[in-house]
Amino acid sequence: MNEIYIDIGWAIVFTMVGGIIGILLILASTLLIPRILTRLTPNLNEDKEIARGNRAVAEYFGRVVGSTIIAIGIVIAAAILGGIIAALF
Fold first, then answer.
1. DSSP code of 10?
2. pLDDT at res. 41
3. For the chain, which residues make up each domain, given as ranges?
4. Nearest-CA neighbor of 19 among 82, 86, 76?
5. What is the model's pTM?
């Protein structure tokens, strides 16, 4: 019975550590992805185009950045779930 509590404790530890690492990765991706996208399109200044009201650039920029952050979140969720499964078995 004691081993079950130890396993649950490790699962909680792995979940917390994975969650903290996941939050840090999401924050880093929200800072890095727009910079990478700006470097990939050197002839287009997204900030100026968005400020001028260019809706196409705003939607493209938002969709690319948003989908990348969602994809990173899915990978992080899988890693956290893997940690929980590893701790419980």
1. H
2. 83
3. 2-88
4. 76
5. 0.66
